[in-house]
Amino acid sequence: MREDQIRTILTDLNGGSTDIDASALISTDGLIISSALSPGMDEDRISAMVAAMLSLGERTAAELSRGNLEQVMISGAQGYVLIIHAGNDAVLCTIAGKAIKLGLLFIDASRAAKAAAAILT
User: Fold this and answer.
1) Is the pLDDT of residue 18 over 90?
2) pLDDT at position 86 over 90
3) Edge-to-edge strands of the sheet including 90-97?
4) DSSP conformation letters of 60-87
5) What's the CATH code, domain 2-120?
6) Where are the domains of the chain?
7) Under a CB-based contact definition with an 8 Å cutoff, are residues 10 and 34 in contact?
8) Is the pLDDT of residue 1 over 80?
Protein backbone atom coordinates (compact mmCIF):
# COMPACT_ATOMS: atom_id res chain seq x y z
CA MET A 1 0.00 0.00 0.00
CA ARG A 2 2.66 2.51 1.03
CA GLU A 3 4.80 1.52 -1.97
CA ASP A 4 1.84 2.11 -4.30
CA GLN A 5 1.17 5.54 -2.81
CA ILE A 6 4.78 6.61 -3.22
CA ARG A 7 4.95 5.25 -6.76
CA THR A 8 1.83 7.27 -7.59
CA ILE A 9 3.51 10.42 -6.27
CA LEU A 10 6.58 9.74 -8.42
CA THR A 11 4.52 8.92 -11.50
CA ASP A 12 2.48 12.10 -11.05
CA LEU A 13 5.70 14.12 -10.66
CA ASN A 14 7.13 12.67 -13.86
CA GLY A 15 3.84 13.18 -15.71
CA GLY A 16 3.52 16.80 -14.57
CA SER A 17 6.17 17.95 -17.03
CA THR A 18 7.49 16.51 -20.25
CA ASP A 19 10.91 17.68 -19.10
CA ILE A 20 11.04 15.47 -15.98
CA ASP A 21 12.66 12.25 -17.11
CA ALA A 22 12.73 10.22 -13.92
CA SER A 23 12.41 10.31 -10.15
CA ALA A 24 13.17 8.10 -7.20
CA LEU A 25 12.68 8.11 -3.45
CA ILE A 26 15.88 6.93 -1.80
CA SER A 27 16.72 6.29 1.84
CA THR A 28 19.49 8.43 3.28
CA ASP A 29 21.68 5.33 3.47
CA GLY A 30 21.33 4.74 -0.28
CA LEU A 31 18.54 2.20 -0.71
CA ILE A 32 15.74 2.64 -3.25
CA ILE A 33 12.36 3.01 -1.55
CA SER A 34 10.46 3.48 -4.81
CA SER A 35 11.28 4.70 -8.29
CA ALA A 36 9.82 5.85 -11.57
CA LEU A 37 12.97 5.66 -13.66
CA SER A 38 13.36 5.55 -17.40
CA PRO A 39 14.20 2.19 -18.99
CA GLY A 40 17.92 1.53 -18.86
CA MET A 41 18.49 3.52 -15.67
CA ASP A 42 20.10 1.39 -12.96
CA GLU A 43 18.34 1.84 -9.59
CA ASP A 44 21.32 0.63 -7.58
CA ARG A 45 23.77 2.91 -9.34
CA ILE A 46 21.52 5.96 -9.00
CA SER A 47 20.83 5.30 -5.33
CA ALA A 48 24.54 4.90 -4.57
CA MET A 49 25.42 8.15 -6.38
CA VAL A 50 22.61 10.03 -4.62
CA ALA A 51 23.75 8.77 -1.21
CA ALA A 52 27.31 9.88 -1.99
CA MET A 53 26.17 13.33 -3.16
CA LEU A 54 23.94 13.70 -0.11
CA SER A 55 26.79 12.84 2.23
CA LEU A 56 29.16 15.22 0.48
CA GLY A 57 26.55 18.00 0.44
CA GLU A 58 25.82 17.60 4.14
CA ARG A 59 29.49 17.68 5.02
CA THR A 60 30.12 20.71 2.81
CA ALA A 61 27.20 22.63 4.31
CA ALA A 62 28.40 21.83 7.82
CA GLU A 63 32.07 22.62 7.16
CA LEU A 64 31.21 25.94 5.55
CA SER A 65 28.71 26.86 8.30
CA ARG A 66 25.72 26.97 5.93
CA GLY A 67 23.32 25.13 8.23
CA ASN A 68 21.37 21.99 7.46
CA LEU A 69 21.48 20.83 3.86
CA GLU A 70 18.24 21.55 2.01
CA GLN A 71 19.02 20.41 -1.51
CA VAL A 72 21.72 19.40 -3.94
CA MET A 73 21.39 20.43 -7.58
CA ILE A 74 23.62 19.25 -10.37
CA SER A 75 23.51 21.09 -13.68
CA GLY A 76 24.89 19.42 -16.79
CA ALA A 77 24.77 20.05 -20.52
CA GLN A 78 21.74 17.76 -20.88
CA GLY A 79 19.80 18.81 -17.81
CA TYR A 80 19.53 18.72 -14.04
CA VAL A 81 19.52 16.39 -11.07
CA LEU A 82 17.75 17.72 -7.98
CA ILE A 83 18.06 15.96 -4.63
CA ILE A 84 15.88 17.20 -1.77
CA HIS A 85 14.97 15.80 1.63
CA ALA A 86 11.70 13.93 1.98
CA GLY A 87 11.50 13.71 5.75
CA ASN A 88 14.39 12.72 7.98
CA ASP A 89 15.25 9.37 6.42
CA ALA A 90 14.72 9.80 2.67
CA VAL A 91 15.49 12.04 -0.28
CA LEU A 92 13.72 12.63 -3.55
CA CYS A 93 15.92 12.56 -6.64
CA THR A 94 14.43 14.19 -9.73
CA ILE A 95 16.14 14.02 -13.12
CA ALA A 96 15.04 16.67 -15.62
CA GLY A 97 15.94 17.92 -19.07
CA LYS A 98 17.62 21.24 -19.81
CA ALA A 99 14.39 22.89 -21.07
CA ILE A 100 12.61 22.67 -17.71
CA LYS A 101 11.83 25.86 -15.86
CA LEU A 102 13.81 25.55 -12.63
CA GLY A 103 11.20 27.31 -10.50
CA LEU A 104 8.59 24.76 -11.50
CA LEU A 105 11.02 21.92 -10.90
CA PHE A 106 11.69 23.17 -7.36
CA ILE A 107 7.98 23.61 -6.62
CA ASP A 108 6.88 20.26 -8.07
CA ALA A 109 9.73 18.32 -6.46
CA SER A 110 9.15 19.99 -3.08
CA ARG A 111 5.46 19.08 -3.17
CA ALA A 112 6.26 15.49 -4.10
CA ALA A 113 8.89 15.26 -1.34
CA LYS A 114 6.43 16.56 1.27
CA ALA A 115 3.76 14.12 0.12
CA ALA A 116 6.22 11.21 0.26
CA ALA A 117 7.47 12.29 3.70
CA ALA A 118 3.88 12.29 5.00
CA ILE A 119 3.48 8.68 3.84
CA LEU A 120 6.79 7.57 5.34
CA THR A 121 5.99 8.96 8.82
Assistant:
1) no
2) yes
3) 32-36, 20-27, 90-97, 79-85, 71-76
4) HHHHTT--S--EEEEEETTEEEEEEE-S
5) 3.30.450.30
6) 2-120
7) yes
8) no
